[in-house]
Amino acid sequence: MNNLKEQIQQLLELAGFSDPSIHFDEENRKAEIFLSEGEWFKRWLPTMVSDFNHVVKLLAKRAGFDNFFIDVNNYRKEREYLIVELAKAAAKKASTENQTVRLPAMNAYERRLIHVELAIRP
Questions:
Q1: Which of 26, 32, 33, 81 is 20 to 30 A from 100, comparing alpha carbons?
Q2: How far apart are CA 66 and CA 12, in angstroms?
Q3: Element (H, E) at 96
Q4: What is the pLDDT of residue 43?
Q5: Can you tell me the distance from the alpha carbon of 113 to that of 59, in angstroms, rounded to the nearest whole number?
Q6: Considering Cα of 44, then 49, then 54, then 58, what sign does the dihedral take?
Q7: Residue 60 — pLDDT band, cuts 50, 70, 90?
Q8: Does the pLDDT at position 81 exceed 90?
Q9: Closest CA to 75 of 56, 57, 52, 106
Q10: Which of 43, 35, 44, 40 is nearest to 17 (CA)?
Q11: Which residues contact 57 (CB under 8 A, 6 or more apart)?
């Protein structure tokens, strides 16, 4: 795991990020990365998380870890919260109006979050 952490650290430094902070959660196979880059970085964060997640998954697979996820500046955590809140609001609207509610297009992981949230609600 330390080798993977060092590789991610090197990758971030090569990308030009100053003073990255990496926290590994081996149990959940997750790495949280915090970068202090300013306002310009917020615009690129969704793309950066997706692209960097792909590269880190390849590095993790080479190191023998499957299903490894990264989160940069809590972007993924905030996105998950937003999607769960969207599911709650859609469920409430569907039950009060007794009609189907269309949700925006989502990837498989986001759809799974919606289904899990709706499954635990009566």
A1: 81
A2: 21
A3: helix 75-97
A4: 84
A5: 26
A6: positive
A7: confident
A8: yes
A9: 52
A10: 35
A11: 68
Using DSSP, state whether 17 is helix, strand or coil.
coil
What pLDDT is stored for residue 112 in this prediction? 95
* The two structure tokens encoding residue 66: 């499957």
Q: What is the mean pLDDT of the chain?
A: 88
State the residue for tokens 């926290």: 23
Average pLDDT over residues 43-51: 87
Question: Distance of CA 65 to CAs 11, 30, 60, 95, 112, Å?
Answer: 18, 11, 5, 42, 22
Average pLDDT over residues 15-25: 86
Place of tokens 């289904």: 115
Report residue 6 as tokens. Answer: 């060092």
Distance between CA atoms of residues 53 and 71, nearest Å: 8
DSSP string of 25-65?
ETTTTEEEEE----HHHHHHHHHHHHHHHHHHHHHHHHHT-
For residues 82 and 75, give the distance between their C-alpha atoms in angstroms, rounded to a whole number: 11
C-alpha 5/C-alpha 40 separation (Å) is: 26
